[in-house]
Amino acid sequence: xxxxxxxxxxxxxxxxxxxxxxxxxxxxxxxxxxxxxxxxxxxxxxxxxxxxxxxxxxxxxxxxxxxxxxxxxxxxxxxxxxxxxxxxxxxxxxxxxxxxxxxxxxxxxxxxxxxxxxxxxxxxxxxxxxxxxxxxxxxxxxxxxxxxxxxxxxxxxxxxxxxxxxxxxxxxxxxxxxxxxxxxxxxxxxxxxxxxxxxxxxxxxxxxxxxxxxxxxxxxxxxxxxxxxxxxxxxxxxxxxxxxxxxxxxxxxxxxxxxxxxxxxxxxxxxxxxxxxxxxxxxxxxxxxxxxxxxxxxxxxxxxxxxxx
Length: 309
What we know:
Helix content is 3%, strand content 49%. It is mainly β. Strand 15 (221-229) and strand 16 form a beta hairpin.
């Protein structure tokens, strides 16, 4: 039975960041009886761990969270996830401190207000364009939400999950523009039986430049079409097949949008379940988002973290 609950998907519903639920768990298992996590691999040159969390996972499914209060401004130009065996997805959000730093048991909807980064099966490294970065301000608290799953009935899994980053060099920070993620798409729909499409999008409240897109659906999704509907002329941002098992970010040529321009996403599904499937946080439900990096950051403006139109 396919059922994985999405941490960021719950944040979307509570707000109305996209989440992903990698893999099926069929390959989860560990023949190592030593419960001590293996020695950490050396970090690639130029990379550092922004936040990490070590865990022991008994048979079954759980969520594990880690808080970390940031003591200095961090300007990030690249992201990479370290996802050990047993990982289903990684969601990193940020906000005002709301508890002590360190690990704690949590749920699907335990997140801070603003998404910084998310990863799932097949997620590639992402790098901002020159002169663009994601900022995590000093005094804010990061929250790493991990969805973990162990289908081995008799053995624990152990691991350390991390979000790795490359920083903007200190000498360049003063000339960098701040970027953010916006989830663009509908939050109230039902996928009919058979082949069906759902359309949604986001209208710009102010000028913005888009430079990366991550289409997000669940297990019934087959194709994503993302188009910028601009007064200056339409531009296709992404047009390709969708796989729940390979949830990638796609860099695009920097695309300028004016206030009033709209980003439209059309999601195509093959619903062979024998019943309509609603929008929802489980991967047995469905979503239709274009998770898009853009600048300048609006933050608490009319977009918030989700633009559900």
